[in-house]
Amino acid sequence: MLAEESTLGERIESARLARGLSNSQLARRIGVKPHTLQNWERDKTEPRSNKLVALSGILGVPPIWLLEGGKAPIEAVTHTQFHETADLESKLARLQKMHERMTQLTFEIVSEVNRLKNTLEQERQDSL
């Protein structure tokens, strides 16, 4: 977690890492070169206001937090991501169970079709 007296660059980097983005990925998303983003994160230069707003949106943090710092919103982002991940895992588990059930039903249907085909074939041969 960042200290409340962190710099703009440290807050950008912290939010980027919390989102799991590489320098190149974030730079591409906001339309700058990775070197430019690196300069922002190292406090060599600062982003223009339009890029700051873009950073805020992509990183999921308030622009005012990027500018002024304070209590980091990253914990809330991480908490939300945890619940989203848990929800996806739950859906995946349900889907896997459905898949297993569908596989079982498919096998039962194929077996029943084969049994009926054999019965019909046997009846046909018996009638000859």
Task: Compile the SSE list and pairings.
Layout: H1 8-18, H2 23-30, H3 34-41, H4 49-59, H5 63-68, H6 74-127
Structure description:
The protein is rod-shaped and about 95 Å long. The chain has a domain at 8-72: Orthogonal Bundle (434 Repressor (Amino-terminal Domain)). With 128 residues, the protein is mainly α. Helices cover 77% and strands 0% of the residues.
Quaternary structure of the protein: single chain
Number of helices: 6
Second-tier CATH architecture of the domain at 8-72? Orthogonal Bundle
For CATH, the homologous superfamily of the domain at 8-72 is named as lambda repressor-like DNA-binding domains
Summarize the structure.
Pfam families: HTH_3 (PF01381). This protein is mostly helical and 128 residues long.
Descriptors:
single chain, 128 residues, mainly alpha, 434 Repressor (Amino-terminal Domain), 6 helices, DNA binding
